[in-house]
Amino acid sequence: MSGKNSYPYLFSWSFALLSLLIGINHVNHWVDLQLHDTYFSTTGLDVCLAISISSGLIGVVYCSLKKIPVLSFLTVLHLIITFLIFGTLLFYILWSPEKSLVNDFIPGNLSVYQVISFVFLAFLTAQVLWLLNIVIGSVRCFR
After folding, report:
1. How far apart are CA 41 and CA 47, in angstroms?
2. Which residue of 68, 117, 131, 142 has the fewest CB atoms within a 10 Å radius of its CB?
3. How many Cα atoms sit within 13 Å of 3 on the Cβ side?
C-alpha cells in the first residue's frame, strides 16, 4: 500500500508466524479429505508449514516492492481473500481434531468438489489481483 503507515508485509509475516505456531502445537493432528475414490491424509503441521511459507513469501514480495506505489484497495482485497482462506484452514486444524472435513464442515446441499473449486478459484483470483496490483504499481512508478 502506498500510505506511510501501511505495512502489508508485517501482516503477512505475523500470519506466517501464527500458522507456524499453530502447526507446532498441533503436530499429531491429521487432516483427512476424501475425494471420490481417493483418500488424502496429511498432518496439520504440513498444512501449517505450507501456509506459513506461502504467507512469508507474500510478505517478502510486499517488502521488496515497498517503493512501488501499489493500489491500496487491491492490496487489502488480496490480503483479505488470501488470509480468509488460510484462516479457514487453520481454524479447521485448530478446532476440529476429530472431525472429518467432508462430513462435518460442508453443508449437505454442496458437494466437496464444489467447495474445493470455489476455494481454489477464490485463492487464484486473489493471486491474480496481487500480480495485477504489482503490474499497475510498476507502470505508475516508471511512467
Report:
1. 11
2. 142
3. 8
Distance between CA 93 and CA 43 in Å, rounded? 9
Name residue, grid cell 505456531. Answer: 21
What type of residue sits at position 106? I
How confident is the model over 59-97, as pLDDT tens digits? 898 888 888 888 888 888 888 888 888 887 777 666 655
Give the number of other CB atoms < 10 A from CB of residue 49.
16
> Which among 83, 112, 99, 84 has a CA at the least distance from the CA of 44?
99
Residue 82 contacts residue 123 (beta carbons within 8 Å): yes
For the entire predicted model, the pTM comes to 0.74
Residue type, 18: L
Helix (H) or strand (E) holding 11, with range, is helix 8-25
